[in-house]
Each structure stands twice: as C-alpha cells, then as structure tokens.
Design goal:
The protein is an all-beta fold and 255 residues long. Among the domains are: 50 residues, no CATH class; 73 residues; 49 residues, no CATH class. The protein has 1 helix and 13 strands. The strands form 5 sheets. A 5-stranded antiparallel beta sheet has the order 5-6-7-8-9, with no helix packed on it. A two-stranded antiparallel ribbon has the order 1-2. A hairpin with a 6-residue loop joins β7 and β8. The protein is elongated, with a radius of gyration of 35 Å.
Length: 255
C-alpha cells in the first residue's frame, strides 16, 4: 500500500480490528530491517490490560505497585463508600512517615465539606472493629467529637469515648472530655498503684495510698496544707460519705 496521510485514512473512523497491523520504524536496525509491524492484539499483550479505558480515566481490577505513588495534590475518592487497606501481618497497618524537621509533619486531618451545625457529632478517625467469638462483626471502641457551639469566635466541642458494654453492638459512653478540660466518667475511678500524697504548688490531685498492708486509703494532694483545728464548735454542716460500705460524716464550716 502506498504511503497515505493519516487524515486521508477512512479506516480511522472505526475501531481497529484485532488483526489490524501497525507499522513502525526501528531506527536501531539497518535500513533493510528497520520496517516492522505489530498487530493490535499484540500491541496490548504485554503488559496485559484488563481494565476499561474511557474519557473519565482508566479503570483496573487490581494494581501492583513497583514504586512510590506521587499524589501531586490530588485525592483518593472513595465515593459514598470507604477506602480499605488490607494487611495479613501482626502490628502492621497505615503508616505516615514525614521528612519534616519537627514533630508536626505526619498529621491526620478529619475535615467536613459542609458548614458545621451545633449538636452535630463528627467521627474522629479512631475506631476499632472486628469479629467476636461467633464471627459476628463488632465495634469495640469509637472516638467521637461533639460540636457544642459553632458560633465564629466562640467555638467549643467535647470528645466522647464510646466503648462496647453488653454486646450486640451496644456502645456505652464511657468518658467525655470538654474543651475546657472537664472530665466525666460513666463509672468509678480506680487507683491500682500506691502513691503517697504531698502538697503540690498549683495542683490538686487524688490517688490511692497503702497506709499498711491491706489498707489503702484515698490520697489527696493539695496546694493548701492541712492545719490543726481545735475549735470543734465551729462546724455548722456535715457531709455524709460512703467508705467501704459504711457511712461517715465529714464536718464542715464556712470559716
């Protein structure tokens, strides 16, 4: 076939057939051997492409990477679903490694595209989910952020720790921490280590202290030291407390 301009080839208006041939010139060969041809089917034989090529991009069933992927400011779009990373080894998972000189480099952000509304709850990227003994799916712990005030300049929020209690996907709000630092627990606080108390500047703390073997008491550390009071008639109020199954009265005064 004589040489023809590409614009004059009417065959270009239709999709090529499997056995159609493409001629190429191999400049590494001598002149007599530099003309070569390849069929359309062989052109895509290596590497094998089983995906779909469209104007919106390339769709592939699976990809094995041989090097790093440069995002160039782009994003992975999971649509309305979730993006999952699989690993078959213990203590392996998602790693962010930063080359920045300080510790602010590798940061995970959770952003919302819509305007925040008061009372809305945002899922913090922390959730443990797995199978129970019957192979049923179970959420074990979920970390949440509640927006208490979304007014510009007055924003406040709280953090929630929801943990499984009772099974059957029952999550109990075990702990709440406000933006101001107030901590709320759904149950009690236990002190497993004996630590003696002492006056500490600008601090009030509580713990447990082993007074003697088998006798652990509540230990209070306070900046204000305890002083001796000899005038017992000053007490005007009493506060009942429960200690080890017995009721006691703590005597109080306003002066």
């Amino acid at each position: 076939m004589a040489d023809t301009k590409l614009s004059n080839l009417t065959e270009l208006a239709a999709a090529p057939a499997t056995n159609d041939e493409i001629y190429i010139r191999d400049v590494s060969e001598v002149a007599a051997s530099e003309s070569k041809k390849i069929t359309i089917s062989n052109l895509f034989t290596s590497p094998t492409i089983n995906g779909t090529i469209a104007t919106t991009g390339l769709t592939l069933p699976a990809v094995t990477l041989g090097g790093a992927v440069t995002m160039n400011g782009q994003a992975f779009d999971a649509g309305a679903g979730s993006m999952q990373m699989n690993t078959s080894n213990y203590d392996q998972g998602f790693i962010i490694q930063s080359s920045h000189v300080d510790h602010g480099g590798g940061t995970i952000y959770k952003k919302t595209a819509s305007i925040s509304t008061i009372g809305s709850t945002l899922a913090v990227p922390y959730r443990i989910e797995g199978k129970d003994a019957d192979a049923a799916n179970q959420v074990w712990i979920k970390h949440l952020c509640s927006l208490n005030n979304v007014t510009s300049g007055s924003e406040t929020c709280s953090l929630y720790w929801d943990m499984v209690s009772g099974g059957n996907y029952t999550l109990n709000r075990a702990m709440t921490l406000s933006g101001a630092g107030a901590l709320w627990l759904d149950a009690d606080v236990s002190f497993g280590t004996s630590i003696d108390s002492a006056a500490v500047a600008d601090e009030v703390s509580i713990g447990g202290y082993e007074i003697s073997a088998g006798h652990r008491a509540l230990a209070i550390s306070s900046e204000e030291v305890v002083v001796t009071e000899i005038d017992e008639t000053k007490f005007s109020h009493k506060l009942p407390v429960r200690i080890n199954g017995a009721t006691y009265n703590i005597m109080l005064t306003t002066t």
